[in-house]
Specification:
The structure holds 2 protein chains of 2 kinds. Chain A is built from 3 helices and no strands. By secondary structure, chain A is mainly α. Chain A has one domain. The mean pLDDT of chain A is about 85. By secondary structure, chain B is mainly α. Chain B is built from 8 helices and no strands. The longest helix of chain B is centred in the N-terminal third of the chain and has 33 residues. Chain B is globular. Classes of the chains: A mainly alpha, B mainly alpha. Chains A and B meet through helix 2 of A and helix 1, helix 2, helix 3, helix 7 and helix 8 of B.
């Protein structure tokens, strides 16, 4: 251990401001990058899932449209999208 | 001879391989970085001239050399993608750019915070500092180009050209302290032969350097996986994977976005 007390550790021999500023800003930047990367991964999976669902719904609507007797069964939600 | 590499050119294989790698990489990152940072801040001796401000070195030097290393990796990926039309290389280049930009910013910021007490100024327009700032702008340009096109192949090509042109900046940064008069000191660690550094200071540096390198590898891995998914979203294996991971409300899908 290079320092006698915790306050000496914080003071960093008079350079405390510069040392802690460097380490603080760097860890904030790295943390932001990690959060951005992990959130981005989740977001992409979610976006792909949403798009898939939308496509599946569209396909279903098209299928029902091509069969006219289906429209008679449930005419309410068969307005063109 | 290189046949064993071929399966990894398949996005699905790469995705699962990096997925298996990720926990090991993150565990090693935490191990090396915590040992390195604690050692650097509390146990390494202070410099006889610079006192405790020298501890910024353990952050500044790994960040600066990684900022150049990542750029080199990105340039290799861009070249590979351009010559052999290898799609995954584009994905990896896109994954590397933001990580490189953040480490360049860290190198610049810690350099400023170290320069103020040692040189008496936060910033000076000398060769080393200016060329490192240009590296940051190159990274930002590459990120912007990757996001500027809807077509990811076109975006990768445009960003790749900028990346390859920007490679000229790497030797300029590396040799700026020898070619021009500068406030910035020369290399202390990577001198050929013996590093001009005490062993008590060198060991915490080695841990910090390996730790930051592992951190970079981990983050690039995460981003690379996202890029693979985004570029292969219509492939059946991605659809199956997404279905397994996300259970959206099936009755009333959110139409707001």
């Amino acid at each position: 251990m290079q320092f006698d007390s915790f306050s000496a550790f914080l003071a960093m021999g008079g350079y405390g401001f510069y040392v802690w500023l460097s380490f603080g800003v760097s860890s904030a930047l790295i943390l932001a990058l990690i959060v951005n990367s992990t959130q981005g991964h989740k977001q992409i999976i979610k976006n792909i899932a949403l798009r898939q669902q939308r496509e599946a719904k569209l396909r279903q609507v098209r299928k029902q449209k091509s069969r006219p007797n289906n429209i008679q069964n449930n005419p309410s939600n068969e307005v063109s999208p | 001879m290189w046949k064993w590499l071929h399966p990894y050119a398949n996005p699905e294989v790469s995705y699962h391989f990096t997925g298996k790698l990720l926990p090991w990489l993150s565990a090693l990152t935490v191990l090396f970085l915590s040992v390195g940072i604690v050692w650097a801040l509390a146990f390494a001796p202070a410099d006889y001239q610079q006192g405790d401000s020298f501890r910024i070195f353990y952050l500044h030097v790994p960040a600066a050399s990684l900022s150049m290393g990542i750029y080199f990796g990105m340039a290799v990926a861009a070249f590979t993608s351009m010559v052999w039309q290898f799609k995954l290389a584009d994905a990896s280049a896109a994954a590397m750019a933001p990580v490189g930009a953040v480490f360049t910013a860290i190198a610049l910021f810690t350099g400023a915070a170290w320069g103020k007490p040692m040189w008496g100024t936060w910033w000076i327009w000398d060769a080393r500092l200016t060329s490192e700032l240009i590296l940051l702008f190159l990274y930002l340009g590459v990120i912007a180009l990757h996001n500027a096109f809807e077509d990811k192949n076109l975006a990768g090509k445009a960003a790749g050209i900028l990346t390859l042109v920007g490679v000229i900046n790497l030797p300029i940064i590396k040799y700026s302290v020898e070619w021009w008069n500068t406030l910035h000191q020369g290399s202390t660690v990577s001198k050929l032969g013996k590093p001009s550094m005490s062993v008590d200071m060198l060991w915490p540096f080695v841990f910090c350097f390996i730790g930051f390198s592992l951190l970079v590898a981990t983050i690039i891995c995460i981003r690379f996986r996202s890029e693979i998914l985004a570029r292969n979203s219509i492939r059946p294996w991605v659809k199956a994977l997404v279905l397994a991971q996300v259970s959206l409300p099936t009755t009333k899908p959110t139409e707001s976005n």
